[in-house]
Amino acid sequence: MQRKQSGFTLVELMVTIAVAAILLTVGMPSLTSMYDGYRAESNIRSIQQAIQFARNHALSYGTRITICPLSSTSCGSNWIGGFSVFVDNGTLNTIDGTDQLLLEIAPFNSKDFIDYDQSTITIDSDGFISSNFNSGLLSYCPSSKSSPESMALQLSISGKVRFATGTITCS
């Protein structure tokens, strides 16, 4: 007695794989856009939390806090390479023997962009951003400088941080 075998034929399997490939081809661009959006939101929130942490520490301990992308022991300008938050008791914008490192943020995706025209954010003991503060928009752009998923933080001289609205680009 012969049993009937069940399963897929080669033709059915090839049709299924072809349909799956077409669906993936159509769906991948929207998944990439969604991934960029999640990455931008996650990273801009980590920057916001670092600034709020620095302000809270400055107010709680009555000390000056500097946030900057460290290059060796002094502040650089490559925000996408990550940044550090430290108590800045000694030479301004330089981490030296009198300073205490509080927080380090790891480098961001190398394909992304951060636009901020200052090399540091310095918060004084009253929680205010230092007197050389002249630009309050810190933009994060995933994958391209004009990505529709870009997000930004609006910094005020009082040290408060909020999400910016409108069209965000990185120059």
From TrEMBL:
It is found in: Cell inner membrane. Keywords: Cell inner membrane, Cell membrane, Membrane, Methylation, Transmembrane, Transmembrane helix. InterPro entries: N_methyl_site (IPR012902), Pilin-like (IPR045584), T2SS_GspH (IPR022346). GO terms for cellular component: plasma membrane; type II protein secretion system complex. Residues 44-159 form the General secretion pathway GspH domain. Its main location: membrane. GO terms for biological process: protein secretion by the type II secretion system. It is a single-pass membrane protein. Gene3D superfamilies: minor pseudopilin epsh domain. It holds the Pfam family GspH. The keyword Flavoprotein does not apply. Belongs to the GSP H family. NCBIfam families: IV_pilin_GFxxxE. This is Type II secretion system protein H. It comes from Shewanella fidelis. The lineage of its organism: Bacteria, Pseudomonadati, Pseudomonadota, Gammaproteobacteria, Alteromonadales.
